[in-house]
Amino acid sequence: MFIIKYKKIFIGISTILVALSLFSLFVFGLNIGIDFKGGALTEVVYKVSRPAQIDLNKSLEALNLGAILLQPIGELGYIVKTRDLNDSEHALLLKTLSQDDKNSLTEMSFNSIGPSVGRELTRKAILAIILISVAIICFIAFAFRKVSHLSAMGNHGVASWKYGIIAIVSLLHDVIIPVGLFVILSHYFGAEADTLFVVAILTILGLSVSDTIVIFDRIRENLRNQANVNKINFSETVGKSLEQSFVRSICTSLTVILVLLALFFFGPVSTRYFALMLTAGMFFGTYSSIFLASPLLVLVQERQKKK
């Protein structure tokens, strides 16, 4: 199959995309939301009409309350994200938002999140990602243990734990590129990494690894069917497995992407970046399962064969 034939090109494309994403992350940094660094979240709804966002931004900048993020919500509301506010600053914020007419809006909620809560959320988010990665390696190593048996029989296979490592490499690819995209959105459009950002990463991990496992499972079945053959051409077996499964993977991913695009264009503003990040994760997750994980298997097998 042409994917295996030109595997170095596809691996090179993935490497370049990951490098560019990491570069943007180190240069621009990630815009951390109040969920992690602490701050105040105010939601207001106007009774008649919502003032223009550009006018409110000018008024809010004059308050000297630090960085303020104003996000439209619904047809008449705004969400305002600021540093932690005391009572007088909170009252001043509402006065500015109401444009000196107290009856023009209703405050729906005002929440304050301390830095300690943010640090705890950060710790739990990192721990969750690490535990999921370890669980994936262990699961794939166990599920593909018979592939290691084929390798030991001299059929030039790849050890089961290497399947797990390659799956994690693919997952890193699937997460890093959407994070790089989010960094660009943060730098130019003010997107903030909040709890939905973490949910998006964890969702990408789950969706992406399932697609990779499906293709790996097809490779395992084809290797098992040829277990009695003295010589197995590993690259041809992987190519055959891709031919049997890549249409299914693409069609499944497209259905999910269409739903996510509908959420992006027609859903609430608060979930727009979440939907966009998941869309990117699904796209690159499908790409990595077909054009990265399987070619990496062949590359690892060829190198260990030379030793």
Can you describe what's shown?
It is a single chain. This protein is of the alpha+beta class and 307 residues long. It folds into two domains: 223 residues, Multidrug efflux transporter AcrB transmembrane fold; 75 residues, Alpha-Beta Plaits, CATH 3.30.70.3400. 71% of the residues lie in helices and 9% in strands. The chain contains eleven helices and four strands, in the order H-H-H-E-H-E-E-H-E-H-H-H-H-H-H. Strands 2-3-1-4 form a four-stranded antiparallel sheet. A hairpin with a 3-residue loop joins strand 2 and strand 3. The chain is elongated and about 80 Å long. The mean pLDDT is 82.
List keywords for this structure.
307 residues; Multidrug efflux transporter AcrB transmembrane fold; Alpha-Beta Plaits; four-stranded antiparallel sheet; translocation; membrane; cell inner membrane; cell membrane; transport
